[in-house]
Amino acid sequence: DATLLFCFFLIIQTITFPALRCNCSTAECEKTGSQCETDGACMASTSFIDGREQHIRLCITRDNLVPPGQPFYCLSAKGLLNIHCCYTNYCNNIDLKVPSGECFILMPPLLSCGSWGPVELVAVIAGPLFLLCLLLLMGAFLYQYHQRAYSHRQRLEVEDPSCDTLYMTKDRTLQDLIYDLSTSGSGSGLPLFVQRTVARTIVLQEIIGKGRFGEVWRGRWRGGDVAVKIFSSREERSWFREAEIYQTIMLRHENILGFIAADNKDNGTWTQLWLVSDYHEHGSLFDYLNRYSVNIEGMIKLALSAASGLAHLHMEILGTQGKPGIAHRDLKSKNILVKKNCTCAIADLGLAVRHDSATDTIDIAPNQRVGTKRYMAPEVLDETINMRHFDSFKCADIYALGLVYWEITRRCNSGGIHEEYQLPYYDLVPSDPTIEEMRKLVCDQKLRPNIPNWWQSYEALRVMGKIMRECWYANGAARLTALRIKKSLSQLSIEEDLKV
Ligand SMILES: Nc1ncnc2c1ncn2[C@@H]1O[C@H](COP(=O)(O)OP(=O)(O)O)[C@@H](O)[C@H]1O
Ligand SMILES: [Mg+2]
């Protein structure tokens, strides 16, 4: 706008006053009476050079008035030079003030006082103010955020049970934790967030077993050993199912493997599926019997504890804190662990099924013939098992328990005699028998593992032999129940005067 106005002024001036007269102080103007004429502008300037004031007046030609609106010739210079241009006759007959040095000293060179327009002034005042406001706002926001986070933390510590620091205090062992939670609460194990916390602070040590679905490791947690069963990501369903079964309400029992935690940890590439349980250094009953023979007391202890575990698994407990009946479906010496006190803990519940007695149904669609062929009951081998009837599965477990008893009893050292460890039917089928081989043997030929005559000479061995036969009936319904076996063996242990 200023440029336009200036141009307009110049045009008017050229039309109306073709020559502008100005005062002139230069040497050339002495002849013309200290005056000059121009088509441009009159100029007066005061400068401060070498400590002396100098006043100059002169004419500026129009072609020197560049750029339009703010010609260089008319610009004052930062505390040194004060210039005034004007466009009426003798208008430069004025005394300009000496440029003050103050601004030059105080202000940065670019902001010379004399040349500040309204925009600069607004910028100079409003800029710092704006910055100040911004800082204040940021301060207020940070303070509020901090306050909110703090009060949230406070609330968490007071109310929220999901804050696992409540449970995970340093000096508590897993056993304490699980004991507290199973006696006070649902009886089905640790809360999920505690399971996750435990699982993620385990340090794996060594492989201790390999099974159907992956590897079993010994791990360390807070100075104690735990077992970690690691499933491959393809086996997610098996992992989930086993974790689900272990967390059946009221399942915990001294002769069932103590479950600690399930965790699915996504490491970005694949999902690691963990089941954490108590660690038993003796390993499986299969490993134990291979390594050691047992005396009568040891045999009864193993057999009775296995029966107790299975009886608890099979048993339905009624009421709100009750448990459903559970059938194992893969009972064998490799799926039973031996604890430090030489009693058994039933493990590997991955194939188990639960009975819903209210509707008389089984909690998953039971697939045909799962489990280990060598331990399959005759009705499973020939597929005559009534899968709609839950008790059929319990009876099949009892057949397998009978085979496990045979494995234990062979290793019993009585009168200085014991046999080497062997799998059931070791002498009748090859190492990885087919279902057909097993069916011919068990269903068609009705063969069972051999019960030696000399067992009759020892009461404990005789009782064990009798129990086995009653576990092996072709008719599942005729077999003993786990509870019945438990009672017979308890009786035997009293007769043998054992502190079992
Ligand atoms: N808690 C444990 N303590 C010690 N050894 C174990 C434990 N759990 C499993 N094992 C070992 O690992 C083997 C395989 O474990 P298991 O649970 O049967 O897995 P799978 O379902 O793959 O058969 C067992 O036979 C046993 O030797
Ligand atoms: Mg197994």
Automatic annotation (TrEMBL):
- UniProt-recorded Gene Ontology molecular function terms: ATP binding; metal ion binding; transmembrane receptor protein serine/threonine kinase activity
Q: What class of enzyme is it?
A: transferase
CDD domains, per the entry: STKc_TGFbR1_ACVR1b_ACVR1c, TFP_LU_ECD_ALK4
Localization per record: Membrane
Q: Which GO terms describe its cellular component?
A: plasma membrane; receptor complex
Q: How does it sit in the membrane?
A: Single-pass type I membrane protein
Q: Which GO terms describe its biological process?
A: cellular response to growth factor stimulus
Name of the molecule in the record: receptor protein serine/threonine kinase
Please report the organism this UniProt entry assigns to the protein. Gasterosteus aculeatus aculeatus
